[in-house]
Automatic annotation (TrEMBL):
It comes from Stylophora pistillata. Residues 301-314 have a biased composition (Basic residues). SUPFAM superfamilies: ARM repeat. The gene is Heatr6. Residues 375-386, 399-420 have a biased composition (Low complexity). Residues 315-350 have a biased composition (Polar residues). Residues 293-420 are annotated as: Disordered. Residues 436-619 form the DUF4042 domain. This is HEAT repeat-containing protein 6. It holds the Pfam family DUF4042.
């Protein structure tokens, strides 16, 4: 029958079934329905048969009604279930709510009353109906997953056949699956589903299923269903994390040599007191065996065709099969090949070729939707290489960053029909099903890792990662090193990558300590830092071992990515030297490989080496070329990479692109690789990015001639047609410029970079392609122009001042012109560059330039793109800093020439930006504080300024009380700048109380101690009593400081504990500052407050004075130095105020005299204190 005939038959059958009436006799009705269903099921649903989904939905609803009215005939129900699967799974008909309700209700009733032989087809139809429709089936949740639900009952029934049980579990999986619109079944039904699946995983055993193969089929179904639940991150998952991880680990190694899962009968007497894995005690799963030290490649694991083609060799290699096949004994009797016996250079190439077809694919695959919908729920895509690795949830496909495909996606490739009924065939079938179990366990582990807080999960690390080489426990490295399939090994690597991602916060505590005694008995315990150190060392050892042993190129690339993440998160500065050397020594020969993907992965890992905890002396030693390399004039790695003779390594390179042999060997390799255009573009691009990372961290290792060669190389790369390549070249120039200026400004003993070298570098850049790229603007290449502007912004104040006048004018003119560019990236970069230039001493006092830059920033602040406004706000804050700097330097000519109207525009623009996006606010409030500090009395007398000042203060108060912590921190600092302007009517203006009340709320309630510190700081700035307002406001602020001082005893967040002492010191300093200005009226009003807090205030103040006297060096609270001597003078001023200037008869004054009497106790005597006053005043 042709394609068009099927469509016509469908339409005819749909028309006839719609005309059937329920009033006809049951026998004739059933007969008619039977005939039509046979016709419909005979169509070829592999092609498009249904043109109109609405007609399909009508047929489904009509059949439900007709079959129910006909007495629910089992034969009709079975045929109708086949039609449901054909329409939903093969024709991909989407159900509406009405049809879904009809089908679900019909199928649930069928399950309750049907005969056993029809149950399998009904469950398949129910699985297709529930697929991705869980959010629409909540009204059936209790009937399906409730205590007496049909699915729960079938799963609990121990007498069920394996096929029925697997399809029941699949129904549970489908109803728990997240739909395409992101919705899913309510958590009140997800939780019992999770508990049901976890119970099945814990209690299933071969005895209840008949054979081990059937048992592992059930386990596979449970794991696939559990994956759908785990990706939703249900609340119960967190509470049952220990039992869940124990159950997963129990099946994590099934099928590996020497391993046998612990089944319920054994678990009862082995683990009766250990229901699951516990955090920090992660060896709860009892195992009688230890991992074997070889990876098994059994000849019986080959495909059937390969077995038939190699029958003779198989007979000589395979042992006599045991009478009973079991997981524990299966692979231990097969021939094995140890890693130590493998010749990795020669003989392993054939083995690699045989297993290459089994390697995982790193590209997403579009998997056809099957009748039971297994494959779509378990497909995988490539793991992202960006930091943001960063996603914490999985998509509906099961694992959006797995790095390997699910076992279920392979089900069609290894069906049961491919295996014979012989014992050898059953062994091969068992190996296949156990490999799928291992893969599905790894998928579930990934889902758990992605949906569990890393701090909670870290407590379970030792269950999967050993902390020493003597550990005999089964771990994730057992999978990575011993799994016979490349997909299994890649899956273990993917799990380890997810575990290591973001682990720096925990591993930073690792430390190798020199033991005072070599005797183990002299060390009564193992410290936490030493245990972490053992984990880090073992991670390096096992990954490097896996890198050597791995024969699959794709899996090797995954291992390299995992090693990169490990390097990025390892605290090498706290560990003994040698780890980094081992990594580099292992990676260096891999640069000679022909595979560009592997070369890229190796370079990426080496880039992490030069980026982490820089600079490391060990890296400095690693990168130096050996004397043999220098003497022979070549690098071994370069020779291997280019397959040339030693004398021809640089024959094609121009003299200005050749790097001296004394330079770091990897710099030489990268330069040679980049210059050879026949090399892969991805390798050349990665080499260019590595150079940027190396220069950023280790520029002091590069001689001036090497830096010049790198500049020439980057400039030549700018001519490339590939945009990412040219952007990386520009980034390299930017990193060279930034690193050289930073090294020059650091004033270290190295003196690696001189001012003349930097100046010559910039003169060549400004005469070369940099200015050309900027002048072309976005019309040629907007990304390149933006990158060039970013590069120009790193010239530095010292070097810019050394340029000739015409070159400075050229740079300024280009930036001002690009500030109006149409491209958002170019516009944002130019706005940021102007913000850098406006701080240069040679430009900040230039009124014309500052005015032009201000107008450009005002225009950028009106841009609709958030990125442009964000960069413009940062530049605006820098411009405000330059105004304050000019004012502090006493530059009256600048202040007189700077337009008040422009200042008013800047102030109003900052006020508007203070209510913009959070990324804009943080710099807008900083600008507001500086502008309010800069305003003079002459400006306040002009129209619009008084109103603008009031609006600005209110904007600051709003941001002090709410928003991101960075915004609140900057807003508090800005309030301090307001208090530094003596011309503002602080104390008399109506907004005075708003400022102090806003600061009080932060001091009292904010959980972030750094923000509290910045809120307390402005209270120690006002130079006169009038700033604090009336007596009531003054006393309120004073009482708030005392309450906040006592409140520091309660630290709710452990991360804030390290800031507690600093907060106490700042609170005491502000109290001393306010006491210096206290009046007798203030003292009288504070009597009750001081009486209640006398003891606490006295103790805190005594501790504060003792702390100040122990400080020998100054520390900075803000940009202005607030040294210990200055703070001691505030304490002295408070002492003098309460002892000499206030009336001693008042109770409050007596209390303060007693509190500040600690001053004389701490310094010896009052006379000694007074003798130091002239010295301090000087």
């Amino acid at each position: 029958m042709s394609y068009e005939d099927d469509k016509l038959c469908w339409k005819d059958a749909a028309r006839r079934i719609s005309k059937l009436q329920e009033s006809s006799s049951d026998r004739s009705l059933n007969s008619n329905v039977n005939v039509i269903l046979d016709e419909l099921n005979s169509l070829d649903y592999a092609t498009s048969v249904v043109d109109n989904e609405e007609s399909a939905l009508q047929v489904l609803c009509k059949c439900c009604t007709l079959i129910q009215s006909g007495g629910n005939d089992d034969f009709l129900s079975t045929k109708f279930c086949q039609l449901i699967v054909n329409l939903l799974a093969k024709q991909k008909v989407d159900l509406n709510q009405e049809t879904l309700n009809h089908l679900t209700s019909f199928l649930i009733n069928c399950i309750k009353i049907c005969k056993k032989w029809t149950l399998l087809n009904i469950l398949r139809a129910l699985g297709s109906t529930l697929y991705e429709n869980g959010s629409l089936c909540e009204q059936f949740g209790d009937r399906l997953l409730g205590k007496d639900g049909v699915l729960v009952g079938l799963c609990r029934d121990k007498s069920q056949e394996t096929d029925v049980l697997c399809n029941t579990i699949q129904c549970v999986a489908n109803i728990c699956m997240r739909s395409s619109n992101g919705l899913h079944l309510d958590d009140k039904f997800i939780t019992p589903a999770f508990n049901l699946l976890l119970d099945l995983l814990q209690t299933s055993n071969p005895n209840s299923c008949g054979t081990e193969i059937e048992h592992f089929r059930v386990i596979n179904a449970v794991l696939r269903a559990l994956l759908n639940v785990l990706v939703l991150g249900c609340a119960n998952q967190r509470y049952d994390l220990g039992p869940l991880l124990a159950a997963l680990k129990n099946y994590m190694f099934c099928g590996l040599p020497g391993y046998k899962p612990v089944y319920p009968e054994e678990r009862n007497h082995q683990l009766e007191d250990q229901p699951g894995i516990e955090p920090d005690d992660l060896s709860s799963v009892h195992l009688d065996t230890i991992p074997q030290k070889d990876r098994t490649y059994s000849a019986l694991s080959k495909k059937k065709k390969r077995r038939s083609n190699n029958k003779k060799s198989k007979q000589t290699a395979s042992p006599v099969a045991p009478k009973q096949t079991s997981v524990g004994s299966l692979l231990t009797e097969a021939p094995t090949q140890t890693f130590s016996a493998m010749n990795l250079n020669n003989s392993s190439s054939k083995e690699a070729g045989r297993h290459e077809d089994q390697c995982i694919s790193l590209r997403p695959r579009n998997i056809r939707r099957h009748a039971t919908h297994y494959s779509k729920s378990n497909s995988f895509s490539q793991k992202s290489d960006s930091p943001a690795l960063n996603t914490n949830t999985l998509d509906r496909s099961g694992a959006e960053s797995s790095g390997y495909h699910s076992a279920s996606s392979l089900s069609n490739a290894s069906s049961d029909s491919e295996y014979s009924d012989s014992e050898a065939g059953q062994m091969a079938r068992l190996r296949s099903v156990t490999s799928k179990v291992r893969l599905n366990v790894l998928l579930c582990l990934q889902a758990v890792i992605k949906n569990t807080d890393k701090k909670v999960l870290f407590g379970y690390w030792s269950s999967f990662i050993p902390d020493n080489t003597m550990s005999a426990s089964w771990s994730i490295f057992t999978t990575i090193l011993k799994d016979p399939t490349p997909k299994g090994r890649a899956g273990g690597v993917a799990v380890l990558m997810d575990l290591l991602d973001g682990s720096r916060q925990f591993l930073v505590a690792a430390e190798d300590r020199e033991q005072h005694s070599s005797s183990p008995s002299a060390r009564p315990y193992t410290s936490f830092s030493a245990k972490l150190s053992g984990i880090v060392h073992e991670l390096h050892r096992c990954l490097l071992q896996a890198l050597v042993a791995e024969t699959s190129a794709t899996t090797k690339a995954q291992i390299l990515k995992c090693l990169s993440i490990l390097v990025l998160n390892s605290p090498y500065n706290r560990l003994k030297e040698g780890l980094v050397s081992k990594v580099v020594r292992q990676l260096r020969p891999l640069l000679a490989l022909k595979d560009p993907n592997l070369q890229t992965a190796v370079l990426s890992c080496l880039k992490m080496v030069v980026c982490v905890h820089t600079p490391l002396q060990e890296v400095v030693e690693i990168m130096r070329p050996t004397s043999e390399e220098i003497n022979f004039g070549n690098r071994n790695v370069s020779q291997n990479n280019n397959n040339t003779t030693p004398d021809s390594a640089s024959v094609d390179l121009k003299p200005d692109l050749q790097v001296p042999l004394e330079s770091p060997w990897l710099i030489n390799w990268c330069v040679n690789t980049i210059n050879r255009r026949e090399n892969s573009l991805v390798v050349r691009l990665e080499a260019l990015q590595f150079l940027g990372s190396f220069v950023k961290s280790y520029v002091f290792l590069l001689s001036p001639i090497v830096v010049e060669r790198l500049r020439s190389l980057a400039c030549s790369c700018l001519k490339d047609v590939d945009v990412p390549f040219t952007l990386s070249a520009m980034k390299l120039l930017e990193e060279i410029a930034r690193a050289m200026y930073a090294e020059f400004s650091s004033r270290t003993d190295r003196n690696a970079v001189s001012k003349e070298q930097i100046l010559q570098f910039w003169l060549k850049l400004l005469d070369g392609p940099l200015i050309t790229v900027i002048q072309e603007g976005s019309s040629v290449s907007a990304p390149s122009c933006s990158a060039a502007v970013d590069c120009l912004s790193n010239i530095g104040a010292v070097i810019f001042n050394e340029l000739a006048l015409h070159k400075r004018i050229l740079c300024i003119t280009l930036l001002l012109g690009l500030s109006n560019d149409e491209d958002k990236n170019v516009k944002a970069s130019s706005a940021r560059a102007l913000g850098v230039f406006v701080l240069y001493p040679c430009l900040r006092d230039d009124v014309l330039f500052v005015a032009d830059a201000a107008n450009a920033m005002l225009a950028a602040m009106a841009d609709p793109k958030i990125m442009v406004r964000m960069k413009a706000a940062w530049s605006l804050a820098n411009l405000s800093d330059s105004l304050v700097t000019n004012m502090s330097c006493g530059d009256t000519s600048f202040m007189g020439d700077f337009s008040d109207m422009l200042l008013l525009k800047l102030l109003n623009t900052s006020i508007a930006a203070a209510d913009d996006n959070e990324k804009v606010k943080s710099n807008a409030v900083r600008a507001l504080g500086n502008f309010l500090r800069y305003i003079r009395m002459s400006s306040l007398n002009k129209p619009g300024f008084v109103e603008a000042v009031e609006n600005a203060v209110q904007a600051l108060v709003r941001n002090v009380g709410s928003g991101l912590m960075k915004v609140r921190w900057n807003a508090c600092y800005a309030v301090g700048n307001v208090f530094r302007n003596p011309f503002l009517p602080i104390g008399t203006a109506p907004w005075t109380a708003q400022i102090f009340i806003g600061l009080e709320n932060v001091i009292r309630d904010c959980k972030n101690f750094k923000v509290r510190i910045n809120a307390v700081l402005p209270l120690s700035i006002p130079p006169e009593r009038r700033y604090y307002g009336d007596v009531a406001l003054y006393c309120r602020v004073f009482a708030t400081l005392i309450d906040a001082l006592k409140g520091t005893e309660k630290v709710t967040e452990f991360s804030e504990f390290k800031y507690r002492d600093h907060l106490r010191q700042q609170l005491c300093n502000s109290l001393c500052h306010m006491t210096q200005m206290m009046t007798e009226e203030d003292a009288s009003s504070l009597s009750s407050t001081l009486k209640e807090n006398y003891d606490a205030l006295k103790d805190y103040m005594a501790d504060y004075v003792r702390y100040l006297q122990t400080q020998e060096s100054s520390f900075e609270d803000q940009k202005e130095d607030n040294t210990a001597i200055e703070k001691l003078s505030a304490v002295q001023g408070a002492y003098r105020r309460v002892h000499e200037e206030l009336e001693a008869s008042k109770p409050a004054v007596k209390i303060l005299q007693d509190v500040f009497g600690e001053w004389t106790k701490a310094t010896g005597t009052e006379d000694e204190t007074r003798t130091t006053e002239p010295v301090k005043s000087e």
